[in-house]
UniProtKB/TrEMBL annotation:
Protein function: Catalyzes the first step in hexosamine metabolism, converting fructose-6P into glucosamine-6P using glutamine as a nitrogen source.
EC number: 2.6.1.16
Organism: Marinobacter antarcticus
GN (gene name): glmS
Protein name: Glutamine--fructose-6-phosphate aminotransferase [isomerizing]
Main location group: cytoplasm
Shown stretch of the complete protein: 246 to 610 of 610
Single annotated GO MF: carbohydrate derivative binding
Length: 365
């Protein structure tokens, strides 16, 4: 039931404050991740993990890419991320004491399951699943499970599944990091920041009107570029994927530093450039990338933290977001990009909940 909403996608975008909170429930206190957050056997299984291999497809893969930044930053454990359809068809080296982590909303994605089964034969320390569907094949075949509490996701374009995956992945990272020397202070700082996320997402949802207004600038465009740095690069990838899926506008995402290594050649007044630029350590660097785009007549759409001090100028639309912790920023910054693609699709009159050629669950290769 869509309730008051015109589409399931919009309903699901708006459910995010609640489902992110639900995914934290029973897993964190005010300032700590609970030992039992990942189940009773987790303590032993995580103790000697020396490497994390993440496998997923599509949006879930983007969640894995964000997690890599967290795992290496907070836990200091090397982490590799690969799309399942690539992993399963190449020869790979599974290092000793690797935790194999599959991320899947449905838990039935054929490539992800095949990668897991293959890796089991090759031998790894344990399999952890982050999944939204209890009783799915992925859940049944894994040693440890963190269920996201997104509830059923009907819109084919994944929204609330992604932000709850990120929430679960951050909780997992903290549990792993604690075994690898993360200080109590840093853990408390991040857990407190995580508690602020549902409220910050609500604040972003309140910008719906403003985002609907700028979405008009995309209606007659054929291409768009998304830029982000660090853990915001996967957020840019996810923003581009959403725009492609539901509005059929060709969109590509780049790490902002790659702009001058090629894609800058594409930038002109017909190429809108969307940037996610929270006030993290990268904000200053990103500003020079923005200058490069502006100098070529490109129209810029910047989603930035109030404190990032990005000013609206000619051809530059700035949407100010709440101040967020650098670690939790990818969760919050995903939401305005969901809204942007939603509104572009509505304006273009596409079938938002059932985009052409796509299926909700990809159970065949
Ligand atoms: C994009 C989308 C897909 C899925 C992908 C993996 O909006 O929904 O890219 O993320 O098919 O699906 P799951 O997570 O069910 O394995």
């Amino acid at each position: 039931d869509k309730g008051e909403y015109r589409h399931f996608m919009l309903k699901e975008i708006n459910e995010q404050p609640r489902v992110i909170k639900a995914t934290m429930e029973g897993r964190v206190t005010e300032s700590r991740v609970l030992e039992q957050a990942l189940g009773t056997e987790a303590g032993d299984l995580l103790k000697d993990v020396r490497h994390v291999q993440i496998i997923a497809c599509g949006t879930s893969y983007h969640a894995g890419m964000v997690a890599r930044y967290w795992i290496e930053d907070l836990a200091g454990v090397p982490c590799s991320v690969e799309v399942a359809s690539e992993f399963r068809y190449r020869k790979h080296v599974i290092q000793k004491d690797t935790l194999f982590l599959c991320i899947s909303q449905s838990g039935e994605t054929a490539d992800t399951l095949a990668a897991l089964r293959q890796a089991k034969k090759a031998g790894f320390r344990a399999a952890l699943a982050i999944c939204n569907v209890p009783g799915s094949s992925l859940v049944r075949e894994s040693d440890l499970v963190i269920m996201t509490q997104a509830g059923p996701e009907i819109g084919v374009a994944s929204t609330k599944a992604f932000t709850t995956q990120l929430t679960a992945l951050l909780i997992f990272t903290l549990a792993l990091a604690r075994k690898n020397g993360l200080s109590e202070e840093r853990e408390a700082d991040i857990v407190k920041a995580l508690h602020l996320v549902p409220g910050q997402v609500s604040d972003v949802l309140a910008l719906d009107g403003e985002i609907a207004e700028i979405s008009k600038r995309f209606m007659d465009k054929n291409h768009a570029l998304f830029l982000g740095r660090g853990s915001q690069f996967p957020v840019a990838l996810e923003g581009a994927l959403k725009l492609k899926e539901i509005s059929y506008i060709h969109a590509e995402a780049y790490p902002a530093g790659e702009l001058k290594h090629g894609p800058l050649a594409l930038v002109d007044s017909e190429m809108p450039v969307v940037t996610v630029a929270p006030n993290n350590s990268m904000a200053e660097k990103l500003k020079s990338n923005l200058e490069e785009v502006r100098a070529r007549g490109g129209e810029l759409f910047v989603f930035a933290d109030r404190a990032a001090d990005v000013k609206p100028e000619e051809n530059t639309h700035v949407v100010l977001l709440p101040e967020v912790h650098e670690i939790t920023a990818p969760i919050v910054y995903t939401v305005p990009l969901q809204l942007l693609s939603y509104h572009v699709a509505v304006l273009k009159g596409t079938d938002v909940d059932q985009p052409r050629n796509l299926a909700k669950s990809v159970t065949v290769e």
